[in-house]
Write a structure and sequence with these properties.
By secondary structure, this protein is an alpha/beta fold. 37% of the residues lie in helices and 22% in strands.
């Protein structure tokens, strides 16, 4: 079978994933305000997709090269992306209109400038004068020689001023202004008792357009929203006289001026205005990047929609459990010395990680703390604990990845803060992005240096730990701590490892070969009539060589179950290729993010948690840590996680071919299993034990 029939293009598969997000916005069983939030998530996902993935496709078109894994023609892929994107946009707008109608049934009204009562008009005028007018900056496009540099994430109003003043021939002027990003996108305005009335910032400006352009005394002003999406690729120069930090700052400035990839505009915009804008932005020969849409753009802001008191408008709160090993303990480190502990966020509290760091910062026996940071919270408790440790005389080392996409500026800021506090900051590893989620604490106990490690599947980020599902292992097992110590030696000396890691599987050095060997073991065992299975929980499956090994395993009779949230380039369920492979994707209130691998190994299963997805970049181009699980109780817990997730018949979709999927529903008489709720209850019950 040709390779192109064995693999689904990653971009097309990703669009299918975002379609599953859109399904949640369309699902009437989802609380109405959560549906609105899913629309925001869909919009934000799509923006990043264009900034990163579509940018890569267009570069391949310019270079006349094929897609890396699927070997597709990028021109065909780009055309398919446009077709799917436009269809999804139409569906998006239909869902948005439906949600607005449901909100009106709940006495919540999102109104525009034509729907205001007299008191509301007065309020909106005052709000504009007090909040908007001081910071808004309209630009008259006929008065400037060079078109302004437009911001990638900005929302712009393109305005047409009609100036007649009694003359027979009407004069037209074009103007441009950015909707202020520093103000709330959604503003609650006065209403009758019992009603909630919300106005979008764009429409507050529209209501005051004649005041904005009062100097021209226009007869009429019309405004149409548009935005552009730019290439987010960072190009680091090779000037050896500059530090890596300086190169990153320069590259971030270049990103703001990256090539426009998409021009999304109000479909009602007059063609003369659209042609004028696209010509000024040098997009007139790039019509395949034009996306007609509705009146409003950047609806990712729906994720921050004002909190409203609507009955059953939101998901009911789910409790976060305390891990039973940490109940009423004086020292987390003493617990970890005695046994391995695995945490599962957000079902269990991320505060356990914060408490470990806070304890290490104060404990006089602790000599050093070393940690890899990829993405951290804006108000990071993790950073605060590290700073406190440095102030208490600990040797603190932070491997901070400056190339964490869209978090570069945040990480540059934190690098300065940490260095000012005496923390040793290392900017990754030469030539490789550090994506590992690793913490190492060294403690002197009775004259001996003992070490404690935390290895996770997600970032040291207390904000995302409330919204992403991740697992994290805390251990003092010397087999693991010794190798993590050598990993940090590698970072500090900036040299490739001269030690063969035997326990943790380190990308890009050992992981691929080890995965292939473990799959080969399953193939041999299946052919010999022995038990053989593979269970994977990952975010994305793209790597063509590993996909081919999974196909080979399926043909040998290995039973393969996978929980894959996002991209799946593998085609499951095809006779003679993948009939033993089952793939489900779970989209629910939390973002599935943990990576867990289980291999049957002839009845003595091997268990791993990892920071790595099965993508070429994670396995060959990043430093990732995949950690073995040795504790029997944690292995049993992982079995339970898979059992629960593979039983989901409420929020799971069975992947059919990478682009098509089937939403699972309980059969007649079958119990409903919503895995995230089942897991929450599972850990709630565990918290009752000691």
């Amino acid at each position: 079978m040709p390779r192109k029939k064995r693999l689904i293009n990653r971009e097309i598969s990703w669009l299918a994933f975002n379609q599953r997000v859109l399904d949640e916005a369309a699902d009437k069983s989802v609380p109405i305000m959560e549906r609105l939030k899913f629309l925001g998530i869909f919009s934000n996902n799509r923006d990043e997709f264009f900034r990163v993935r579509v940018a890569s496709v267009k570069r391949l078109i310019a270079l006349n090269e094929k897609m890396e894994a699927s070997k597709d023609d990028p021109k065909d892929v780009f055309a398919k992306i446009q077709e799917i994107t436009i269809a999804q946009q139409r569906r998006y707008e239909g869902i948005y209109a439906e949600i607005l109608a449901t909100l009106r049934e709940n006495s919540v009204y999102i109104v525009n400038e034509t729907e205001l009562t007299k008191p509301q008009k007065a309020f909106v005028k005052d709000y504009y004068q007090d909040e908007v007018d001081p910071i808004i900056g309209p630009i008259m496009l006929d008065q400037i020689s060079e078109f302004p540099q437009l911001r990638d994430k900005g929302i712009y109003l393109s305005c047409i001023l009609y100036l007649n003043h009694g003359r027979k021939r009407q004069e037209v002027k074009y103007a441009l202004m950015e909707v202020p990003a520093s103000l709330p996108r959604f503003v609650e305005i006065p209403s009758e008792i019992g009603n909630k009335v919300i106005m979008i910032q764009d429409d507050i400006i529209r209501h005051n357009l004649e005041e904005v352009f009062d100097i021209f005394k226009p007869d009429k002003v019309d405004a149409y929203t548009f935005k552009i999406t730019r290439d987010a690729q960072l190009d680091l120069d090779n000037d050896i006289s500059k530090s890596f930090l300086e190169k990153m700052k320069k590259s971030l400035n270049k990103r703001r001026r990256g090539e426009p990839l998409r021009f999304v505009y109000d479909a009602a915009m007059p063609s003369d205005l659209k042609n004028f804008l696209t010509k000024k932005m040098d997009l007139q020969n790039n019509e395949d990047a034009f996306i007609p849409g509705g009146r409003y753009h950047n609806l990712k802001d729906l994720m921050g929609f004002p909190k409203l008191n609507i009955s059953r408008g939101y998901y009911r709160p789910l409790s976060t459990s305390i891990h039973p090993a940490f109940k009423k303990v004086e020292s987390h480190l003493e617990v970890i010395k005695k046994k391995d502990v695995m945490l599962h966020f957000p079902f269990q509290s991320f505060n356990h990680i914060i408490e470990v760091l806070k304890e290490a910062a104060l404990d006089p026996k602790v000599k050093s703390i070393k940690i890899c940071l990829y993405r951290v919270s804006k108000r990071s408790k993790v950073i605060n604990a590290l700073i406190n440790a440095a102030r208490n005389g600990k040797n603190v080392t932070v491997v901070l990845e400056l190339q964490a996409r869209f978090d570069e500026e945040n990480n540059i800021y934190w690098s300065r803060v940490l260095e000012d506090e005496g923390v040793k900051v290392l900017f990754g590893f030469p030539g490789l992005k550090v994506h590992s989620k690793v913490l190492l604490i060294t403690r002197k106990e009775a004259g001996v240096l003992n070490q404690y490690v935390n290895i996770g599947t997600g970032n040291f980020n207390e904000s995302t730990a409330k919204a992403y599902t991740d697992v994290s292992l805390l251990t003092s097992d010397k087999r693991i701590t010794a190798e993590v110590s050598r990993l940090f030696d590698m970072f500090e000396n900036a040299i490739w490892p001269n030690y063969r890691f035997k326990h943790i599987l380190l990308s890009p050095f050992y992981l691929r070969n080890k995965l292939v060997r473990m799959i080969n073991t399953e193939i041999r065992n299946a052919k010999a009539g022995k038990p053989a299975f593979i269970r994977l929980k990952i975010n994305s499956l793209v790597d063509p060589n590993l996909i081919d090994k999974l196909y080979e395993a399926s043909n040998a009779g290995v039973k393969i179950d996978m929980v894959i949230r996002g991209i799946c380039s593998l085609i499951p369920g095809v006779k003679g290729m993948s009939e033993n492979i089952n793939v489900v994707s779970i989209i629910d209130r939390y973002l599935e993010h943990s990576r867990i691998y289980v291999f049957c190994n002839g009845g003595d299963p091997k268990y791993y948690i990892s920071s790595a997805d099965w993508m070429v970049r994670n396995i060959d181009r990043r430093i990732e840590v995949t950690c073995p699980i040795y504790a029997a109780d944690i292995k049993s817990e992982i079995d339970d996680i898979f059992s629960i997730q593979l039983s989901d018949n409420v929020k799971a979709r069975t992947i059919l071919d990478g682009t098509n999927y089937k939403i699972l529903k309980p059969k007649s008489g079958e119990k409903k299993v919503r895995s995230q709720y089942e897991l929450n209850e599972y850990y709630r019950q565990k918290a009752k034990t000691k």
